[in-house]
């Protein structure tokens, strides 16, 4: 069983990270950096203002970047009939979805944390703010990954599912954004702890919600 | 080949608010081959999915013994991967021993990405995946679609060999298929 899950993880990573289908992990990353780059152009060279708002901008950019790969998380496998084949081999949809959350996070969480370094430079964040942003992203991106997989599974097979998925993620990601970006204003542990709590809740319910959605989409 | 059995009792299938068929009972033992026929939209594919346990029956029950392999219109092979790599994923997944690539004439296509394959070639690739899976219960949904004459004969041979080896095959197809000991089931008889 665990050997098969490793095979699944390897396939998911090859698809999501290296971009077997449509783009891979580079596109969301470039999008993230582009937002961080555009913001100073729009706001103007006011260094204190940029430093004060920069953390929030990084969070919004991260959230939007997490939406980009939504349409290739679940839908292509449903169209290919992969889920049927896995079901016949006795692999539960919950396990498949848990593996996919992990693969999705690996393909965008750590790269995003790396990209936050140049983004922080562009926005003129100081070391302390950067530390809070990085810890916040480490705690918040697993939740974003889980949310992405859950919404992708719920909207798979629907007409215009990708656009609908993007719209659904935004309100559901608000708690992560509030606590993640909010921890910058307070500079404190409490915001980060709440971010982690929201992430844990999303990680806990996603395999079951997404698995049920897949079974429902199949019949 | 492990023990296998496939039985259905008083099955009914509904799509939307229409009942497609009802009162379907069947019992297949080792070596049996069933040809499900009927016009388009009569419920052949739905029956295959119900027998596979992938779709719920509106009424009735299905019992089966032995692992199930399914070939339908979707090949379940990653379109961007070369055929060899795409098949290797399932071979590793199934810890497969049998290799039907040569048999199905796919050797020259192993480097070609799956999305460039024709309908018939994809169908043959899906059959190669099924054979490597080494399961006793074969559920084939329109396995002859897009196949040329020689490939049809080859599929008939493969299914016949599978049944001769103690397996069960259920073939849903509007095309005639020649198999020894083939039982035909016309779904039109069961339409309400």
Q: What are the defining features of this structure?
A:
heterodimer, A: 219 residues, mainly alpha, 10 helices, 83% helix, elongated, B: 192 residues, alpha/beta, Rossmann fold, 2 domains, five-stranded parallel β-sheet, three-stranded antiparallel β-sheet, 4 helices, 8 strands
Assembly of the depicted chains: heterodimer
State Rg of chain B. 16 Å
The number of helical runs of chain A is 10
Mean pLDDT of chain A: 88
> CATH top level of the largest domain in chain B?
Alpha Beta
Q: CATH homologous superfamily of the largest domain in chain B?
A: P-loop containing nucleotide triphosphate hydrolases
| SSE ordering of chain B | EEEHEEHHEHEE
E-strand count of chain A: 0
Spell out the blueprint of helices and strands.
The complex is a heterodimer of chains A (219) and B (192).
Chain A: H1 2-16, H2 26-43, H3 47-67, H4 75-80, H5 82-88, H6 93-123, H7 127-155, H8 161-172, H9 174-186, H10 189-218
Helix pairs in contact in A: 1-6, 2-3, 2-6, 3-6, 3-7, 3-9, 6-7, 6-10, 7-8, 7-9, 7-10, 9-10
Chain B: E1 5-15, E2 18-28, E3 33-37, H1 44-52, E4 59-65, E5 68-71, H2 83-94, H3 119-133, E6 137-141, H4 149-164, E7 168-172, E8 182-186
Q: Would you kindly provide a written description of the structure presented here, covering whatever features stand out?
A:
The complex is a heterodimer of chains A (about 220) and B (about 190). Chain A has helices at about 1-15, 25-45, 45-65, 75-80, 80-90, 95-125, 125-155, 160-170, 175-185, 190-219. By secondary structure, chain A is mainly alpha-helical. Chain A has one domain (about 1-219). The longest helix of chain A is centred in the middle third of the chain and has 31 residues, at about 95-125. Chain B is of the alpha/beta class. Chain B has four helices and eight strands. Chain B has helices at about 45-50, 85-95, 120-135, 150-165; strands at about 5-15, 20-30, 35, 60-65, 70, 135-140, 170, 180-185. The longest helix of chain B has 16 residues, at about 150-165. The model of chain B has no long low-confidence stretch (mean pLDDT about 90). The interface of A and B includes residues 7, 21 and 84 of A.
